Amino acid sequence: MKGLRTVIEQDAEIAVNQRAAAGTYLMGLRSPEIAAEARPGQFVMIRMRQGMDPLLRRPFSICGVRDDLVFVLYRVVGRGTQILSDAREGDALAVLGPLGTGFRWSSKGCPFILVAGGMGMAPLLFLAGSMAAERYTFFAGFGSADQMVEPDALGVQGMGISIATDDGSAGHHGLVTELLENHLTGLTGNPGIVFACGPVPMLKAVAAITHRRNIPCQVSLEAAMACGLGACQGCAVRASSGQGRTYWHVCQDGPVFDVMGVDWGAL
Ligand SMILES: Cc1cc2nc3c(=O)[nH]c(=O)nc-3n(C[C@H](O)[C@H](O)[C@H](O)COP(=O)(O)OP(=O)(O)OC[C@H]3O[C@@H](n4cnc5c(N)ncnc54)[C@H](O)[C@@H]3O)c2cc1C
Ligand code: FES
Fold first, then answer.
1. Does the chain have fewer CB atoms within 10 Å around its N or its C terminus?
2. Which residues, judged by CB distance below 6 Å to any ligand atom, belong to the binding site of ligand 2?
């Protein structure tokens, strides 16, 4: 299906660029074409400002679409995201997308468990917004309460997310994977499918938990990216044995992978 994907490159007006939590911003870019094509788990590559400095576009998960707007939720971690946070509404940014292979699920059948760590919340918000609310249980972990992103503040209603924080300043005091473990321990019926996005140590823990309990799981991975289009090899991660190949390109084969398809020992 790769050849059939529609990828759009265009200058998109910044309709929204507002603070969502400590060091975290929500940006809405006006692109009816990308909004119409985007699926949960896909991402966009954004040039941080007009011109060639910084040279490389940066990848961001699509955290939702509304009308002709495509939303991304980003944390300021370096020069590029600092420039992005200073961008003004009404400016235009070059955007490429939607890119990558998103989450796979069926509209009928089993329940879903969503597990987010930090900015891993972004693709899972889009996924949850595409599912009936009664079908999923959503766990999200943050460092502390001031980093928590409230879906209501993003215009997403009624998600009922259970929170964990490292310092105990909100919700469960501890790791989001402990919420997952507790939930699974208390379950009697079919646990369904787990969808996860977050830092690699969190994803490794989710992989171990789901593997131990034989629960299907899809993870959204991050990797350094230059092109986002499968051309530069920059985003390669090792495939597990039996996949018929040694490496995956996170930008094209992912960012969403079946948990069993990734060599977790190499990450
Ligand atoms: C598919 C994909 C989806 C992503 N979605 C989101 C998202 O929804 N929201 C969001 O905030 N970020 C997301 N990221 C990460 C985002 O692309 C980086 O944070 C961004 O490129 C940093 O740019 P910078 O110029 O500010 O930082 P740089 O100057 O490039 O780096 C500054 C510091 O941040 C670290 N850093 C850079 N990239 C990452 C990364 N991917 N993970 C952890 N640390 C990193 C660097 O090691 C360095 O220490 C995603 C990445 C990928 C590959
Ligand atoms: S970012 Fe260039 S191949 Fe994936």
1. N
2. 225-228, 230-235, 249, 251
The CA–CA distances, whole Å, from 172 to 43, 94, 144, 180 equal: 30, 40, 11, 11
| Pairing of the two strands 172-173 and 161-165 | parallel
What region, left, alpha or beta, does residue 12 occupy, with left being phi > 0 and alpha being psi -120 to 50 degrees? beta
Residue 253: DSSP 8-state: T
Query: What SS3 class is residue 8?
Result: strand
Task: Sketch out the chain's domains with CATH numbers.
Answer: 2-99 (2.40.30.10), 112-220 (3.40.50.80)
Strand partners, 123: none
Tens digit of pLDDT for each residue in 43-99? 999 999 888 888 899 999 999 999 999 999 999 999 999 999 999 999 999 999 999
Which ligand is the nearest neighbour of the Cα of 255? 1
Cα dihedral across residues 184, 185, 187, 188: positive or negative: positive
Return the C-alpha torsion angle 19, 224, 52, 82, nearest 10. Answer: 20
pTM over 0.85: yes
Give the number of whichever ligand sits closest to the CA of residue 225. Answer: 2
Contact between 209 and 232 under an 8 Å Cβ cutoff? The reply is no
Q: How far apart are the first and last CA of the chain?
A: 28
Residues recorded for the chain: 267
Place of tokens 């996005």: 197
- Give one DSSP letter per residue of 42-62, joined into a string: -EEEE-SSSSSSS-S-EEEE-
Whether residue 236 has its Cβ less than 6 Å from ligand 1? no
Q: How far apart are CA 173 and CA 168, in angstroms?
A: 4
Provide the β-strand partners of residue 28: 16, 71
